[in-house]
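Quick one, tokens below. Sequence please?
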């Protein structure tokens, strides 16, 4: 096989570096058209046997959003969620999971769809922050979500506000460890596990 001289470096790579977790939002309405465009990107996510086990509940009615956040449980995510105009509840259908060698793929399929969502939002200059800290039982009851559906992620959605809040600082520096990344050599091997040459 000949070595490719052209790495391509498509512009779309910029999106991977642009996306970051946003924990403070501007008080600006998010257009439904943009939400639909994001969902078009979600629609084309890959999934095991094309099972597409994801569903998303978008809460953009402000009263409803406030009540929903009140059912998230007591944690530091609440004020972040309150600052955003839209709340996304990410659901995965445990009853339509492909199972192989002990792995329940519905959670993985959901995660891929959620990443499509997050990247599509970034492409449209919208911020998100994947959150796993919430009270699933309380939220499911309040939102009337069927038993078979798991809430796998929630995220605020909105236009980022540049000014950082104290909580934003604490979350990103302490909880999220400053967003630092492992070096590639720590997770990439060639030809044999552990070989980096
Ligand atoms: C499964 C998952 C759960 C997360 N839960 C939370 C959370 O509850 N609260 C929060 O502020 N950030 C949460 N994050 C965001 C991570 O802290 C963040 O992605 C990571 O620190 C890297 O920073 P970056 O997204 O800005 O690149 C979560 C991310 C993932 C993928």
């Amino acid at each position: 096989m000949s070595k490719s001289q052209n790495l391509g470096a498509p512009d779309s790579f910029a999106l991977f570096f642009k996306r970051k977790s946003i924990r403070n939002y501007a008080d600006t309405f998010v257009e439904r058209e943009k939400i639909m465009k994001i969902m078009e990107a979600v629609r084309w996510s890959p999934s095991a046997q094309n099972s597409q086990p994801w569903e998303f509940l978008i809460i953009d009615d402000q009263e409803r959003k406030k009540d929903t956040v009140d059912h998230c449980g007591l944690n530091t995510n609440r004020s972040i969620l309150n600052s955003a105009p839209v709340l996304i509840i990410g659901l995965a259908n445990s009853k339509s999971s492909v199972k192989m060698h002990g792995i329940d793929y519905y959670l993985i399929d959901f995660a891929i769809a959620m990443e499509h969502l997050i990247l599509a939002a970034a492409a449209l200059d919208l911020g998100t922050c994947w959150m796993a800290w919430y009270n699933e039982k309380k939220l499911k009851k309040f939102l009337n979500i069927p038993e078979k559906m798991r809430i796998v992620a929630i995220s605020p959605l909105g236009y980022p506000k540049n000014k950082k809040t104290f909580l934003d600082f604490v979350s990103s520096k302490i909880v999220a460890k400053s967003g630092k990344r492992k070096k590639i050599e720590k997770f990439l091997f060639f030809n044999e596990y552990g070989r980096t040459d």
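The chain has a mean pLDDT of 91. The domain at 13-167 is CATH 3.40.109.10 (NADH Oxidase).
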